[in-house]
Amino acid sequence: MSPVDYIRSRPPPRTQNKSLALPSHNMGLSDSEKAAISSLWEKIAPEASKLGAESMSRLFQNHPDAKSFFSRFDLTPGSQDLLTHGGKIFNALGDATKNLDSLSKYQDLHTNKLKVPGGHMKVRGIM
């Protein structure tokens, strides 16, 4: 089974109350773990927009309150808005795979620039 098929086959994550506090220091990943993450990303990258749109659809299905942050979007599964924004999200994940030792810029983006309330900065589940 390809990594993309594996991700698609996973059930939606269950809500978990884990903070999204991203460390600004070294995450403690070994070089081989970083290489594995990069290798996996290379397989996922060609499907970034499609997988991102699917992830956003799952988010809205499981957490309808999140729709309020995307009121100007067409939230229909597979819409161009979801493909575009989902692609941006997944491509940011790809960028993060190149900077695993410093992820603080993503936390800063959401809290300071996008003004996402702290209560919404929770990891809902892990793939």
Automatic annotation (TrEMBL):
Residues 28-127 form the Globin domain. Residues 1-28 are annotated as: Disordered. Gene3D superfamilies: Globins (1.10.490.10). It comes from the Eukaryota. Keywords: Heme, Iron, Metal-binding, Oxygen transport, Transport. Belongs to the globin family. This is Globin domain-containing protein. It comes from Ranitomeya imitator (mimic poison frog).
